[in-house]
Amino acid sequence: MALYSEKVMDHFTHPRNVGIIEDADGVGEVGNARCGDIMKIYLKIKDQTVEDAKFETFGCGSAIASSSMATEMIKGKPLDEVLAVTNQAVAEALDGLPAHKMHCSVLAEEAIKAAVMDYYNKNGIGYDRSLFPD
Ligand code: FES
Ligand code: FES
Description:
Elements: H1 6-13, E1 26-32, E2 37-46, E3 49-58, H2 61-74, H3 79-83, H4 87-93, H5 102-122
Helix pairs in contact: 1-2, 2-4, 2-5, 4-5
The protein binds FE2/S2 (inorganic) cluster (2 copies).
One FE2/S2 (inorganic) cluster (FES) binds next to helix 5.
């Protein structure tokens, strides 16, 4: 059996939403200090809804596929649904990731949450702290 699903290979070789949003409403950057991998997500938000999402990822193929799928999953979604996107949901949408690559999808969940938190902070919007990782 192939190690990576066709969807992972597709999103790795043809990643969606690569790039930056110059006038982003929220930007989230997370990294794994141990390996040095970095993921940055830019969000355009209007009426509590993600209008556009882009990413820059310095990481492995699974991290790039996770970023690509995660940005596709949150575009057009209201923020409460965006905050409910888990790394497991991203991995499932990719038809699975190898067990030792699940941590790469965690970067996507954390970067999205960091970007929404950045938006809330910039706009003085109160939020439930328990929805966000430390
Ligand atoms: Fe760095 Fe996976 S090895 S996040
Ligand atoms: Fe480092 Fe996947 S992001 S191994």
